[in-house]
Amino acid sequence: MTNKENKQPLHEKYPAGAPKNFIVPFLLLSLRDFSLHGYKLIERLSQFGFQSIDPGNIYRTLRQLEKEQLITSVWDTSSGGPAKRIYSLTKTGEKYLEVWAASLEQYQQMIDTFFSMYTKMLFPFNERSNSEKTTPNKPEEGS
Description:
Layout: H1 3-6, H2 10-13, H3 23-30, E1 36-37, H4 38-48, H5 55-67, E2 71-76, E3 84-89, H6 91-122, H7 124-134
Antiparallel strand pairs: 1-3, 2-3
């Protein structure tokens, strides 16, 4: 590590964004019920909320997923234009998607816990005021 890297602020060393390979479960999920062309997969990723998608990176990822036998592809020559690959999920890919889903569920629980604690730290009086709102008023004596 160079001296310059050591002095970088954390937000520059670890930029905000999705973890490495985070796009994989979204690609697999998109292919779960439908076989799709690469450009349609890129559209789906945008709908999931991914920003600044590099199509070259997506196609490299798709080729890697195919090497790992998680997806398959066939050439579609039925349209009038150039041939396009149609990608489909394999049984192995479905199993891998299940593993990802379980991992993401665990991460979701961790993230929920983090934000619960973070919110309590930022707004400590909200918890007390919420409990005061839900506590019924005691009837006054003699009523």
